[in-house]
Amino acid sequence: MTLDIPSPSPSLEAHRAKLLTPEAAARLIKPGNHVFIGTACATPRALVAALEALPNPPADVEFIYFLTSGAIPLDADGHTTTQYRHRTFFVGADVRSAVKQGRAEYLPISIARVPELFNISRIPLDVALIQVSLPDTFGYVSLGVSVDIVAAAVQNAKLVIAEVNPAMPWTMGDSTIHLSQIHRLVPVDTPVIEYAHTAAAEEVVERIARYIAGTIEDGSTLQIGMGRIPNEALKYLEDRKELGIHSDVITDAIIPLLEKGILTGRQKSQLKGKIVTSFAFGSRKLYDIIDRNPLFSFQPIDVVCHPNTIAAQHKMVSVTQAFAVDLTGQVCSDQFDGEFYSGLGAQGDFLRGASRSPGGKPIICLASTTDDGETSRIRPLLLAGEGVTVARTDVHYVITEYGMAYLFGKSVRERAVALIELAHPKFRPWLLAEAQRLGYLPADQTLKNLHAYPVEEERTIKLKNGREIMLRPARTSDGNGIRDLFFKLPADDVYTRFFRRVQTLSNKEIQRLCNFSYENEVGFVAVTGPREQEVIVGQACYFLNPSTNLAETAFLVDPAWQGSGLGSALQQRLAEHAKGRGLRGFIAEILPENAKMIALARRCSDSIKVERDEDTVHVTMLF
Questions:
Q1: How many angstroms separate the CA atoms of 31 and 290, rounded?
Q2: Which among 568, 534, 537 has a CA at the least distance from the CA of 553?
Q3: Radius of gyration of the chain measured on its C-alpha atoms
Q4: In this predicted model, what pLDDT tens digit does every residue of 392-418 receive, in sequence order?
Q5: Domain 203-437 belongs to what topology?
Q6: Residue 319 is inside which H or E element, if any?
């Protein structure tokens, strides 16, 4: 039979016997076949369109895929109009309505485990429809922008049909297959599918992104994923050094860092200097950069996402975007408003791997509310229809636009307090009441701060001894750190601070040192160490008297840090904050024998008044 094939590229001339049109290739699919469809920006659209256009489609054919782009037909209302059954590992826009209608089945499984299911025929494959580059002189083609599970599908399918596209970039790494593994070739000449995140980010997204970026250290290895918030975070890393990439997917967000020489990968523990990934989801600019570029190494998804490989990376940072988190730390990331949305991808593998990486950071991020602001995404309990995709035992960092919490190794009480502080202020009283009703928090627990601080309120400063500390607003969840600081104080320091001899502090007294309204009472802490293991080495606070517009100050400083300039740094931060609010100045009540605090007070202002009586020194410092 003679087929109307466009004049093939010279590189395909030797393989003319394998050439077919999309329509002819579609007729090779038999009733009952399980048909794999290539991934994302390498979706073989011409082949899928030809199958959907068949006037008499083969019965009971099932499509199997990870993520498609623009291949599944939709009607004017956005409903799927496919003629076939679907089985998907990711509920993308193409198939969302079909899943809702019961015409497609969603498999909640790590995408890194899918090749294993292909290999043991737990998921049988009769046909694989893929898209590849032009062949080289030795008969090899590249899987291009999507290696992921495509390589395993090619190895297991009985019939492999490939669109051969001159626009498909040739990617380096383990991304090539020989034409002997492909049974039919379908020449196409269309642009590779492109994808771009929304250009302008809302304030909430930017604030979350800044918090994420603030946790990423020089020399880290990054996995970012496809979520909008994680990709936005890369914009705030342009002052970092020697970052690396080991990720299931790469997007255009890496391009500015690459162009600025930040993605050197020199500190990676494996494949130093290489950007390791499994598929690309981006623009033509990204595709041109990766084309035959030895800087990139594309690998099968089960290789990239093997837990031991991830754990071996240097300072592995994994960022996963979620839909909801409950007060014990359970995370839902593949259901939204009771409907399946997106999928597990490889997030569980990366979160667990990053948790075992030296210096690694597994991060969950989400907006504190739904887009309309009417529902909190921080829940007392996950709702019906919100499955647990990340167990609370595997959750470390959680970030919203209101800050960051570190949950690993924390009690339910500590988790609940920390997560309430990440919620939108209007939902915090409700969450506090629910946490007490559920027995997560004691009845005497209060929560005064309804205005979480922005990340810009954090200051990293160098003291006169050369050591760096971070000054940040105090949080209710700092209670244990304040208690630890208290027990480091000598008895005389306790007496000069509290004006009485005490050996312990009650829960109410601890809360007074960290649970501030930030209206008439404000507190800051000085912390050292990584965010997941912060040690509070200093605390300072002021209490405003609205009738005088003066505030009384108080300080706690770890004895090991006294004399380093920490007290002065805390006082300067208090003064900066108070001046910004228009306060007239500070007052302090100091015991006469506390010479250090009297000297510190004198350094606060040029306009200072010191009065003594039998018991105390009264100091007034005007701004």
A1: 39
A2: 568
A3: 30
A4: 999 999 999 998 899 999 999 999 999
A5: Glutaconate Coenzyme A-transferase (3.40.1080)
A6: strand 316-321
